[in-house]
Automatic annotation (TrEMBL):
Family designation: Belongs to the CBF/MAK21 family.
Record's compositionally biased regions (Basic and acidic residues): 185-203
GO cellular-component term (any): nucleolus
Highest taxon, organism lineage: Eukaryota
UniProt domain CCAAT-binding factor: residue ranges: 529-682
Region feature (Disordered): 157-203
This protein's name: Nucleolar complex protein 3 homolog
GO-annotated molecular function: chromatin binding
Keywords (A to Z) from UniProt: Coiled coil, Nucleus
Organism: Salarias fasciatus
Nucleolar complex-associated protein 3 N-terminal domain: residues covered: 208-302
Location of the protein in the cell: Nucleus, Nucleolus
Length: 799
């Protein structure tokens, strides 16, 4: 008998006090010990077999020892052999012989430790290898799980459930019923007139609208309690009625988009860990967790539905039992893209934002112009409002992969969106996220960041900006190297001109050589050549000052291209010329010779004669800036010749065209221009562009850059800026009205202000003879009070 264990077995009450985790650990330890002991036993048996096999292979098998029978045994054997065998039947004899053959343990060599029927098993395995092939499993039916009450034992609670299979017959019957209902509806609609059909359709749409409004208002009013209504609303995306399917689906997509924009929190929802799921929390916290889980799952399903609509439209596939025809897929896809772009801009912090970026970036290169423009505009807005840089970095990475995968055959608008990246100022973007108000509503709080988030931005924003900039330049340099003759070259050159001041100094020499070769090749258009020149001088005006490079060839290229600008389609190139002139003449005035500056001033004045008014204003403003940077250019305002030779306007070398031997006669012609601002600038320049005095410009014009003036007086809207005055109406002058006569005198005196400005007594021409004597007496007798009075009226006119 085994000795009785002294350890007491735990009672049922003690088991109840023991936690389930402890019992599970005990069970696991017990199973682990059993597995370890079984593993050790198997290892020992394997080692013993290997040792026996080795001994058998080394030593030859010994024969069995000879056995000498006793005399009594020999007599007994002789007696048995002498017995007749016919006492046994044939069947019994065969059975005995077969049993003797199967007694292998007695007849075989004892030194062998192989299994008894090992050879037979190996042969059977060889002949039945086909049994090892995987068999095709039967199709698993869809089962519905029904949860029951759990059972409790020593190990803890055991959940119980029953799986209820859904028969395929019922599904087929439902499909048949739906088809019959649809057929009945079509038959019923065929019997109606066109007006009755339209009324019936309008009635159905109104019912669906009310249903959508009810579900949406319920979710927005109490999101935590009614978040499950989103699933019901999302189910309406599968509307089966062909007469209202397209309209209902569009309404549902837009409604769900607005619901998610309002209900989504201001943070990213992460999945719960196993420890967080097992810990006990408050009831409110549990409700919040359930709400977040349902919200994320429904948001994911909604995005998948939008993606499937776009894929069906791209692939032109129509599913079975689909109530929408192929012609309506375009409208549904446009609404789906619009919803995705709105979510891209409204929820950049929420889940699946990178998935939306991956879905929308290929659509920027779509053949449909409407879809492509929507996506490009959305990403431009995203770049502008992205203050953290995470969304911009993700977008640039996807764009880089798209351009490379398509072998650089993408639309130029895809690369032009990169011009909106905020990679210039880091500090301003972070400071802009500070809250401006002490008390803010929910929408205002979403736009601002907390103090800790701003603190983290100081570390993350520069790193993201650097990575984004590297990806952008990687795309640009790839195109310059491998596809410099593609349609993307203008966008690349424009991007390099925009971000040239951020290029690393190591790439300057190679980049300048590439740009110079592109210009000299003659394959570039005017705009592309201007972008190359702008890129070169943007580099040289920044970190490129340390380089010992003479950009004379680029000055010659720009001087040669100026006459190609005209009032036609190339008027948009004027803004690039103005930027180049600002960089080449104003910022680099110490590296520019006087002969070169005078040649550019003369050619700019000639160019302003045959341009549109907005371009003429910008060119004259650039000429004014050049005169201020090079005061000795006022030689061009005199008729005297400086030096020998004569001016060669057709020569494309600004250093040897003898610009000092000409005059700016174009300014006198421009003083009779139909545009008032052009006349004002021409008169100002013809007097030497003074900063003070009567010929000086007003503050609004003098403090604006040439690019700003070009944009302010733009003619893109086909309107005259400033507007043309209406012709004056002829009215009878009442001589007895003294104040009106006095006002006409003061207004005319404003036009003839030589008496006030220079303090001279000058005769005023143009007044009526009857009023000349009285006006002269006023001017000669009291000139000082008149000045103050006229100044008062002039200030009133200016207001």
């Amino acid at each position: 008998n085994k000795p009785r264990s002294k350890k007491r077995r735990p009672t049922f009450r003690r088991l109840l006090k023991t936690s389930g985790v402890k019992l599970e650990n005990k069970l696991k330890n017990r199973q682990l010990k059993q597995n370890v002991s079984a593993k050790k036993q198997r290892k020992e048996q394997k080692r013993l077999r290997q040792a026996v096999k080795g001994a058998v292979a080394a030593l030859p098998p010994r024969p069995l020892e000879t056995y000498c029978p006793r005399p009594d045994e020999e007599e007994e054997e002789d007696f048995l052999e002498s017995l007749p065998t016919d006492m046994l039947e044939d069947d019994d004899l065969q059975l005995m012989s077969s049993m003797a053959q199967r007694a292998s343990f007695i007849t075989r060599d004892l030194s062998s430790c192989a299994p008894v029927h090992s050879g037979k098993k190996r042969g059977s395995e060889v002949t039945k290898d086909y049994e090892k092939l995987p068999r095709k499993m039967a199709r698993i039916e869809q089962k519905e799980v029904i949860h029951l009450l759990p059972i409790k034992d020593k190990t803890g609670l055991i959940p119980q459930s029953i799986q209820k299979p859904v028969s395929q017959k019922e599904e087929e019957e439902e499909e048949e019923e739906d088809d019959e209902d649809a057929a009945e509806q079509e038959d019923h609609m065929e019997g109606l007139t066109a007006e009755e059909r339209e009324q019936r359709r309008a009635q159905k749409i109104q019912e669906k609208k009310l249903r959508i409004a009810a579900l949406g208002s319920a979710v927005i009013s109490d999101p935590i309690s009614n978040v499950k209504r989103v699933k019901e609303l999302r189910g309406m995306l599968m509307e089966a009625d062909p007469s209202v399917a397209v309209t209902v689906r569009k309404l549902v997509m837009v409604s769900l988009m607005e619901i998610f924009k309002d209900v989504a929190p201001t943070y990213r929802i992460r999945p719960l860990t196993e420890d967080e799921k097992t810990t006990k929390v408050k009831k409110e916290t549990q409700q919040l967790r359930e709400f977040e889980e349902i919200l994320v799952s429904q948001y994911k399903f909604y995005l998948e539905d939008l993606e499937q609509i776009i894929k069906d439209w791209k692939q032109q596939k129509k599913k079975r039992r689909q109530a929408v025809n192929l012609q309506s897929y375009g409208g549904l896809a446009a609404v789906a893209v619009r919803c995705l772009t709105e979510l891209l801009l409204a929820l950049p912090h929420f889940n699946f934002h990178n998935n939306i970026i991956v879905l929308l970036v290929p659509l920027m290169n779509d053949a449909d112009r409407q879809v492509s423009d929507m996506c490009c505009d959305a990403f431009r807005k995203l770049f502008v409002q992205d203050k953290l840089g995470a969304a911009s970095l993700a977008t640039v990475r996807v764009i880089s992969g798209l351009v490379k995968s398509l072998s650089y055959s993408v639309r130029p608008e895809v690369l032009q969106t990169l011009l909106s990246l905020r990679i210039r100022e880091v500090k301003k973007d972070i400071e802009a996220t500070k809250p401006t108000k002490k008390f803010m509503n929910y929408q205002e709080k979403k736009k601002n960041l907390s103090r800790m988030q701003r603190k983290s931005c100081w570390k993350l924003k520069p790193q993201r900006t650097k990575k984004t900039l590297n990806m952008v330049f990687l795309v640009y340099f790839r195109i310059l190297k491998k596809a410099h003759r593609s349609a993307l070259l203008p966008a690349v050159l424009e991007g390099l001109a925009n971000f040239a001041h951020l290029i690393n100094l190591e790439f300057f020499d190679d980049l300048l050589n590439v740009l110079q070769n592109l210009i000299q090749s003659g394959d570039l258009s005017n705009q592309e050549s201007l972008h190359c020149i702008q890129t070169v001088f943007t580099i040289l005006s920044g970190q490129g000052d340390v380089l010992n490079i003479d950009p004379l060839t680029f000055y010659q290229h720009l001087y040669r291209m100026l006459p190609r600008l005209h009032a036609g389609a190339s008027n948009d190139d004027v803004i690039i010329v103005l930027r180049c002139l600002d960089t080449m003449l104003t910022r680099r005035k110490k590296q520019v010779t006087l002969q070169r500056a005078m040649a550019f001033v003369k050619r700019l004045s000639t160019l302003s004669l045959h341009l549109l008014p907005d371009a003429s204003v910008g060119i004259l403003a650039a000429t004014r800036a050049a005169l201020h940077s090079f005061p000795k250019c006022d030689f061009l305002l005199d008729n005297e010749i400086q030096g020998s030779g004569f001016y060669l306007p057709e020569l494309d070398d600004p250093e040897h065209c003898n610009a000092q031997n000409t005059a700016l006669w174009e300014l006198h012609t421009l003083q009779r221009h139909y545009h008032p601002v052009v006349r004002l600038f021409a008169a100002h320049l013809s007097r030497g562009a003074p900063s003070e005095g009567s010929a000086a410009l007003n503050v609004e014009l003098s403090r604006r850059a040439p690019v700003e003036l070009f944009r302010d007086y733009s003619l893109k809207d086909m309107t005259f800026n400033p507007p043309v005055d209406k012709p004056p109406t002829k009215k009878k002058v009442i001589k007895s009205n003294a104040p009106q006569r006095w006002w006409r005198k003061i207004k005319f005196f404003n036009l003839k202000n030589d008496v006030i400005s220079r303090g001279r007594k000058k005769r005023i021409e143009g007044l009526e003879r009857s009023e000349r004597n009285s006006y002269g007496r006023i001017c000669t007798s009291s000139l000082t009070p008149l000045r103050s009075c006229v100044g008062f009226f002039l200030r009133g006119l200016m207001k």
